[in-house]
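Recall that a protein's primary structure is simply its ordered list of amino acids. Everything else, from secondary elements to tertiary packing, is in principle encoded there. The following example makes that idea concrete.
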Amino acid sequence: MPAWHLHPDVLLLVGTLAGGYAWAVRRVGPSKVHPIERVVTRRQVLAFSAGVLNIFVSASWPIHDIAEGRLYSVHMMQHLLLSLVAPPLLLIGTPAWMLRWVLGKPGLALAKFVTRPLIALVLFNGVIAALHIPAVVELTATSEPFHFGAHTVLVLTAFCMWSPVLNPLIELPKLSYPARMVYLFLQSLVPTVPASFLTFGNTVMYRVYAEGPHLWGISPLTDQRAAGLLMKLVGGFLLWSVIAWYFFKWFMTEEREGVDVLEWSKLEGDLNRLELTT
């Protein structure tokens, strides 16, 4: 077990996120919303705080230290926290005015492109696939700067992937409830491929984890198979939990308002096409 120690870069990151959020709420928010509107809600503050805490836990001792060349299963759990837990919490916790202010006009134009559902899926899953290439895994386990850069790209593309489901801006692409469920279902299928290689492989794919210190008597092959199961089962559970949430929201919306969401989405698409032709 690696000895306890602080990670100053992680402290700086989470301090910047938390401090910047608080400063923006106090100094910027009042000028961005109507006087009778709330700058931020309690739910948003709690969600953003949970997202920041998640980043701190996943990037600090002991998870980060065990993930580097000791247990690949812990490395996998770190990736799940940084891609499927922290980004949605941060998006839920960010008010629309704040995200619009942070992005600015150039950032908003770029975000409109990279958060299109198909592009977002390709970007995120392309990064996931790249992070399972043996040479990349070796670098993330042996080079701290590369590890930080890889995690940064992972989190940024995770924001893109979650955006069509959770972003608060009307300017960015956002899916209807049924489309969100299909979108997340597709996302739950893609990681099955690398998870299968990890779970059912008979040899250890990554030399750094085969030769590194074996904690708690866990063999490298068992560790690799556990990583594959975590990727498939835990990742799938997180995505399917969100799918179930949106299913019940869709159902409750129809019950409360008497509106067929599928028919409304079709009508909305027809109206958009009519506007384009005129």
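The two ends are 67 Å apart (CA to CA). Residues 220-257 form the longest helix (38 residues).
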